[in-house]
Amino acid sequence: MKLLIVEDEAPILRGLLRKINQFHTPFTDITGASGAAEALETLRQHGADLVMTDINMPEMNGLELIQTAKNEGLCSRFIILSGYDDFSYARDALRLQVIDYLLKPIDDEQLEELLTRLGQAALAEHEKHEAEEQETFTEVAEHDYVEKPEASKQMLEYIEANYVRDLSLSSVAEHVGLHPNYVSHLFKKETGMNVLAYIQQLRVIKAKELLISRPSLPLSEVAMQTGFESQRHFFKVFKKHTNMTPRQFGEAQHPAK
């Protein structure tokens, strides 16, 4: 779970980061920002499950930060820190549906209890969302499979015909018209390995066939004709699968007289 602390006074920010990192809460990714602009950039790049922000900051105050973050859909949970027990601030915070309004100096026990409760709630919401997504995915996948009972056969035939090309899970999924996640699940169920591992194994098999049937073919050509991105990559994958280099394999098939 991600927590972003926004405080323009460096000593206070350092103290909060040190203190909260020692708490036992669901938040394991705790970062700080020294102002609203930095906070918004952090949220845009990495997101956050909860933002705890000072209210009095130059250029853009905490309330404006919250409004901007909400407008952009960057975060939905906010706590305000303030050194002022000002009714107008509290009213505006209520309008923005801020979870809590904490006055400095902050009571450590109160803060840990609040962060623990909010972290657990956010975690439960995440788990619920993931469960709903998985349920939807399963329903779609089952429907897709009913629509494409030959999907496994199509995937294997497509890989066999195109292993020399730059294949990927996405390209295989696009060919059969199924979601990549479902293709990965179905392929592993049918073959016992993932798509990329299967492609690699097939390329090694084809390379072996070339090394046996065309012993004079340069290894760089063998690599190119079996879909490896480079000769170096070919050597690495081949040795991983056979415990021999391509040259050693070729010599074993055609020993010198």
Q: Enumerate how many helices there are, as a single number.
A: 12
Strand content: 5-15%
Question: What is the number of beta strands?
Answer: 5
Look at the helices and sheets and give the structural class: alpha/beta
User: Which word captures the global form?
Assistant: elongated
Rounded to the nearest angstrom, the radius of gyration is 29 Å
Spans of at least 5 consecutive residues with low confidence: none
Give the biggest sheet. Answer: 5 strands, parallel
Please specify the SSE layout and strand pairing.
Blueprint: E1 2-6, H1 10-22, E2 29-33, H2 36-46, E3 50-54, H3 62-71, E4 78-82, H4 87-95, E5 100-103, H5 108-147, H6 151-162, H7 169-176, H8 180-191, H9 195-213, H10 219-225, H11 231-242, H12 246-253
Parallel strand pairs: 1-2, 1-3, 3-4, 4-5
Helix pairs in contact: 2-3, 6-7, 7-8, 9-11, 9-12, 10-11
Describe this structure in words.
There is one protein chain. With 257 residues, this protein is an alpha/beta fold. Helix content is 63%, strand content 9%. The protein has twelve helices and five strands. The protein has a five-stranded parallel β-sheet with strand order 2-1-3-4-5, sandwiched between helices. Helix 2 packs parallel to helix 3 (62-71), helix 6 crosses helix 7 (169-176) and helix 7 packs across helix 8. The longest helix has 40 residues, at 108-147. The protein starts with a strand and ends with a helix. The model has no long low-confidence stretch (mean pLDDT 87).
